[in-house]
Every structure is written in structure tokens, then in C-alpha cells.
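Practice record 12: protein with zinc ion.
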Amino acid sequence: MDQKWKFEVGDVVKLKKPHPCGSHEWEILRVGADFRLKCMGCGHQVMTERKMVEKNARELKTIEAQFPQLITPDSPTQHVGGTPSGKFSKVAHAVKMESLQDAFSLDELREFDQRVREAGVTPEYVVEIKIDGLSVSLEYRNGRLTRGSTRGDGLVGEDVTENLATIKSIPKEIPTAPEFLEVRGEVYMPHEAFFALKEQQELEDKTPFKNPRNAAAGSLRQKDAKITAARGLSIFVFNLQQVEGKTFTTHSETLDYIKSLGFPVSPRYNVYTNIEDAIAEIQRIGEARGTLDFDMDGAVIKVNDLTARQALGSTNKFPRWAIAFKYPPEVKESTVRDIEVTVGRTGVLTPTAVFDPIFLAGTSVSRANLHNEDIIEAMDVRIGDTIQVRKAGDIIPEVIGVARHGENSVPYHMPRVCPSCGAPVVHLQDEAALRCVNPECPAQSLRNLIHFASRTAMAIDGLGEAIAQQLIDRQLVHSVADLYDLTKDQLLTLDKFKAKSAENLLKAIASSKQNNLDKLVFGLGIRNIGDKAAALLAEHFGSMDALRNAAAEDISSIDGFGGVMAQSVVEFFAKDGTADLLHRLADAGVNMQWHGEKKGTALAGMTIVVTGTLPTLSRQEAEAMIVQNGGKASGSVSKKTAYVLAGAAAGSKLTKAQTLGIPVIDEAEFLRMVAPAPAEQPELEEET
Ligand code: ZN
């Protein structure tokens, strides 16, 4: 089939071949014989031949022709980008939220200047940092925030007022505001908040967001505004969309005005009278890149005079009065000095490349995660090699590949014994990861202790990594039960530990005994059991004793539990040492009973299987939502399956669902199912 593709700059295409970060979606930054594409998952930009893009898009289309339920709004066959999902109500933007034309070279900026001049404008330019976040509109009536919406496709976005209202830096009331005001800004997640969230997600065995932009998008589009509130989002306002009863002559004046109303505005906006000075500022911003506590994806040049802007107008895609400069991703070479292997809480060995420090996107970098043996083998990274490193999404260093092998370098192999305890390591099932399965392994004890004390688990304040390390090193703590036997005298032997800190820590440890059962169950660090699953177990069984004696089938009968999770629980309680650990915790007075609240019922009694790559939710998130809504997330399709929630590249599970006639839904449909029902909705007829 010879399909003619229409690709336009700004479109999002979905390709069959995913980026190594896992995303199938690419934003088109430039078309031609070679395309420039930006990965929607991590922001990485690539150049690729047009025919490769066509081939990949066609292959996806063939898949979609076979499985129409897989077509997602961002598919190239649907030819739209950023279409509202149906999760939130739609908002038509009175003033179009335009996107900007991108420039990848300084000469393109000079050409832009020439076009402006040829149109008869003697320009004054404002240069601003372009924050890499999510564009939103905020509307105020009589000084009150009345509506906040996403950009969507620029004409129609989604109403996310409730979520935006949780962002501290967005004013909810502006006493000095005119009757009506609309501003446009970029919601972003500061690096600090991103790293905290990432750490939390890793701790909970969830797939962490790949970069702050994804994290901001995922956080803003939460159904539960409480989750958004907890994510530490922020905003920079960069444009006055509409205002009643005020007139301005320049853009920089409007920014001053917006600032005077109390909005955080673009951190840097300076006015220049010629393009070369503007370019110099763009270069300065480029040098400062990476010293910022947020991600930026370029710098913008805008014509300052508002009348000139009107005269210049817009093409059908972009305004003619502005252009965005995209900095090339910085890639540098370095020499691998070592490959370090660390042991995690569940015994997984993680290799890290240690290389000569390089200055990359504003910070010094000398380490990058190599993930597992398969990835090391695929890249053939060896100690002594010259590697190429870049920052994914501008903050997480990543090894792209080997530039050249070092002289006399030899292929690297992961150790066959645990670097912490020396026990032999194994591959469990078909995992790429190697694991140390020694229950006494000190590296695992340390990670377990940190996990046990973490906020989501037993929330023992003051027991951070450094203290945990000392407790393990000094053999004061082997298992988490030892925490409850610690004495003040023992704590005083720790580095820099004074009487006050010892007392505080003992107090925190003592008060953790009153925690609800779910925190303890989560704190035990059972494989495949995150905090939500722990809460379900605690609620269902009501006591540690009942949970301990539960059979796999009792556990998998809980809505939301799959066989793998049930098996992990049974294995945990059958393990040598677990009974002893629980006795010791109980003897210490740690609460072993559940007292708590109920979960949602939208999916009560339904077993749902998630497969393939969903457009916005990770599989873990989708499964957690199923569980939270009273359903059961299962890993395998059977006649009992109520629905299969399928994303792109779904394989055998989808085929099986079709064979069995199980309804297949997409993410949008799923989100509609779990959305809170409107109050006036008539009651559903009871099935008989
Ligand atoms: Zn070990």
C-alpha cells in the first residue's frame, strides 16, 4: 500500500520503533529529506531519513488496521497532536495558544530578522528562556482565578482548574487585577521536586518519570488534585493573552505588568535593538543552561512592539513575530575508569560507569547508570573505553555509546558474586538483572533499612541513608527489628551524634510502633508489593497473623491482585527468618492490626489486564488505578478477564483477548471508566 504521508512541523508522530527510553512518540521539529524528531519521552532529538519515518509510521498503521482499538489520538493516522483525552472537560481558547517556529542554527535567527525587516518592521527584540514544561492558560474574573486549562492543540485544551489551583506560585486572588485577565504560562517541575519524586517512585518500585517535563505533564493531568498538590509544580508566566481596560505598547511592558500582579514571570527577559545582540544573549543563556533549577528547551526571540506584531501576523502554523532557538543536545566524550556495581534492596546488581569528570549542560558529571548486563553487552562498554555521554532531558547523564575501545581493553562482565557479601548471584526467571539472593547480605540490609524507615513506609524521621549506613557498618542493626532494641548509648557512638539527636531518633523509632498495618507491610519490602498493594493486603486481612497464614489463592482473590504479587507475598512469609522477624517486631510492640478506610468501587469485581505501551500512564500507574477503584489487575488474559487495556505494541495478550472475545479498551476509555461519575447521572440498572 503506497500511502502518502503529510508530515508537518509540530505534529506528533507515533512510530513503531521506540526510542531507547521506551517512548513511541516523536514530535516533528523539521521536515525534509532528513527529519529532525524530538522524543516525547525524554526530549532527545534525532535526525533521521524521511523514508525511515514513513516506513515506521506505515508499519504502525498496519498494526492499527489490524487492531483499530489501538489507534490513539496522537497516532500519525489521526494526524493531530495533543488532542484532549476526554479525562477533563474541554476549553476553547479565546486567544489561540500558538506554538513557535524552531530554529536550530544562528543563521536561521538572522533569516528571521531579515523577514521581519522585509515586512517593514524595525524590530526591538525580547529574548526569553524557553522553559520545558506544559503550556497553560489562567483566567481571572474580578481578581479570582476562575479557570485554568492546558494548551491542547492551541485551540481547545482541557480544564484543569482544580489541579492548577494547587500550585503555590499561581495566585488565586489578585486584588489589583482588572475585571478580566488571561495569562499564559509554562508549568514545570523544578529539579529538586523531580529528584524527590523520582526517588519516591523508585522506592515504591514504580517506573519513575523520565524527565521533569513528563513528570509535570503527568502530575498536572491527575484526576486527584491532591496528587498534583504533592508534586511541587511551579509556573512561569510569559504572556498576557487578554486584559480588560488596559493597553500596552510593548511585550516587555506586559511582562512588567504581569509581574506587578504577583505572577512569577520568565526569569530573564531583556530587550535588544538588533539581532546580533539578541544572539549574544542566546549564547549567554546557552552557557548558563544546566545551572538553572528547571529544564529549558531553548530561548525565544520575540518582536517587542505589539503593533508590529499585529502587522506581522501569523502563518497557519506559527506567529511571524517570534522564533524559538533550540540548543543542540550537548554530547561529550570521556574515558571509563571503572564500572561500579551496587546492590539494591531486592538484591539487584546495578552497574554504573565511572568516568573522568566532564562539564555537561552546566554541571560536572562523572557517573552514569548502565542498567544491566544486556545493555553493557549491547554497547560493549569496557573499562578504558572512550564513551559518549549526554544528559537525557538535560539532567540525567546517559552513556550513548562507545566512541572507541581503549587499548588492550577487554569485554566487561558483571561479577558472578555479590560485591557486598560474596554470595553467588543469579538471574531470576527471565530477568535481565542479576540478583544476590543472600538474606544476610549487608548491602541489602542497608537498602531494606532505608526503605523501612522511609516516609511511605514506617516514616522514621532522622533515619536517613548516612545513619542507616553507620548502623549497618557498626553492626548495631542487621535486621529492621534491631532498630527497636537500639539504646541511647549505642546511638551516641555514631559520628557526630549528640544526646539530643539520639533522643529524637529513639522517639521517632518508638512512635513508628503505632503505625497502621499497611505501613509495616510496605516497610517489609516484599517484592512486587508497593504501598497501594500493601494497603490492600492490610485492609483485606486485617492483621499480620491473618496475612501471614494466607494462601496464594486467598491473596489473589483480592481485587487488584495478580498471581505474581500473591506468589511474592507467600514466598516472603515462607522465607527463613520472616517468622522470627515478625515475632521480634511484635514483641517490640509494633502494631500488627489494621485500622483504616475504604477504597473506590468504579471497577469493583472486574479483572483487567494491562498490555502494551499506554499513551500517558505507565503500566504500574494503570494497575494502581485499577486497584484503587476496587478492580483487580491481572497479568494474564482468561475468560474471567473483564477488559484488556491495550496500548501500542500490545502482543500476545491482545491476540488472546480477541480470540476469547474479551472487550479491549484504550487508555482514554479506561480513564473515563475510573473518572468520578457526575452527580446527576442516573443509576445504572442492576444486572440480573
Ligand atoms: Zn549480597
